[in-house]
Amino acid sequence: MDAPFDTVIRNASLPDGRQGMDIAIADGRIAAIGPALAPRGRQEIDAGGDLLTPPFVDAHFHMDATLSYGLPRVNESGTLLEGIALWGELKPQLTQEALVARALQYCDWAVAKGLLAIRSHVDVCDDRLLAVEALLDVKRQVAPYLDLQLVAFPQDGLLRSPTALANLKRAIAMGVDVVGGIPHFERTMAEGTESVRILCEFAAGKGLRVDMHCDESDDPHSRHIETLAYETNRLGLQGRVTGSHLTSMHSMDNYYVSKLLPLIREAGVAAVANPLINITLQGRHDSYPKRRGMTRVPELLAAGVEVAFGHDCVMDPWYSLGSGDMLEVAHMGLHVAQMTGQHAMRACFEAVTAAPARILGLHGYGLAPGCHADLVLLDAASPVEAIRLRAARRMVMRRGKVISTTPRATATLDLPGRPAQTGFRLRSPAGLDAENT
């Protein structure tokens, strides 16, 4: 008799702590999950007790700038403002072909790291909309293996840049998915507030999601997130709005934050922190004590706000490092936010998987019958171990098809009286007589 399933993955650990689980796949979707499933698959994959998870999701990225590091020059100060100025210098030199080539290379990296969904902001302040056209082309090309969601982002300010609003509307008409903004970069607080109102009203009229760079500043008086929450409630946009960065909250006084957090929760506004970038770009004017700059992740979570982590930048005018590894992002977020309790560390793993999937509104994401068979097998036994090791992606699967594999991280040793090989996992629960292979 023919095997009823296309693939069965055997003996997997799942992020919720279940172990020894089998996952049956048919027609690109998860058909069944349980221990020791009896039906066979035409393909059988032994997970060997390793962690099987839905793919990583990046809720905040700039794919139009990625891999452009050193063009036309290097950001010598490493600051946010020099990065913005440098991007302004680079924009006139951009070509659609180069934009597409760099973005596709980054998507290759993303797939190899198990990152199969990205929300990318794309600058609309260039009247040519070259980057918009390029990333719409990339979105079409990568659709079989990666979900790319685009945000129309008025990088130079909606009201500060004369053609930004018209260009944003053009970008949405061309097929860009989400309305973006940057209220703290407007000339005045009042214009920042006005930009939030204009953009939210436009999004509400079009039935679109909103994702604004909001209060990416060390200024505790940058409070546009309050306006964003207000407009979300006023316009009935609950569950469709995201405030990205929110770094000014790190510098706000506790009394004001105690009022602000319930407003964000009441409005159903999500938050995206970008640990790698927030920790390097913020606090630049401080000597010591020096502020960390990342928003109040534990407090937002405790208030019931949906929180995700984003990569933000990889080798661009703002950040010269990065490889598309969302476990590196979670690792930094865990440390900066001092989230080292067991529950908190698992929340950091969720901040690069399930939480951003909900923020992006991904359909069919998850580990349940009926979900897409988009899966990542990690060289780790648990979410916490995956973060600790930035674990190798042994297998990446899209719609039931394996699209990337990576060997386990194993070192060969030549040490007297010691094993010939070692991995980096502590297999003994008590930590004694551990088998490090």
UniProtKB/TrEMBL annotation:
InterPro entries: Amidohydro_3, Metal-dep_hydrolase_composite, Metal_Hydrolase, Metallo-hydrolase_Enzymes
This protein's record includes keyword Oxidoreductase: no
Domain Amidohydrolase residue range list: 43-403
Top-level taxon in the UniProt lineage: Bacteria
GO molecular function: cytosine deaminase activity; isoguanine deaminase activity; metal ion binding
Signal peptide region: none
The UniProt record lists the keyword Metal-binding: yes
Stretches the record annotates as Disordered: 417-437
Alphabetical GO biological process terms: cytosine catabolic process
UniProt KW keywords: Hydrolase, Metal-binding
CDD domains: Bact_CD
NCBIfam families: PRK07572.1
Protein's name according to its UniProt entry: Amidohydrolase family protein
Taxonomic source organism: Rugamonas brunnea
